[in-house]
Amino acid sequence: MAAPPPRPPPPPALCHRLYGGSRRRRPHRPLPRRGRAPPPPAAAVLSFDHDTALVGADLSGRGDLGGAVFTKANATRSDLHGSDLRGANLEKAQFVDADLHGARLDGVLATQTKFNRANLRGVTLGGANLVGATLDGADVTGADFTDALLDVRVMLKLCERATGMNEVTGVGTRESLGCME
Fold it and tell me: Which intervals of the chain are annotated as region Disordered (predicted)?
């Protein structure tokens, strides 16, 4: 039995599709992250996780909290106004009666987090994951929820009282939540 004849090389158009136009390997360049602060170096990540008591703590105006870990932290009545928490992990934390007005919370992971009666005036929450979070009684005047993941039930409750426009992004709270007119 004779071996089958060798296959001819693919036409140039097929090579272009298969190999992206060039066969040489390009160095990896990460894609730019829109609306998020670059991740901090590993040594600079602050950790307040696993039942850390931050009750009444004053962390206002801090710019070094981006990417910080607040998993299961108790930050009840804490002051975080004007702080930069972009990309932080707030999972299962408690921010009950906390002051977060004007804080940057873009891209945070805040699943099952309690923001009950929190001051969220002028907060930016672009791309935040708030699935399972509670915001009962929270003041969301001027907050920007653009591309945030929210439970439908929570979104409908927020739409009942959503007003104002975010001073940083210029987006209205009702518009960012997708509220019906």
Answer: 1-42
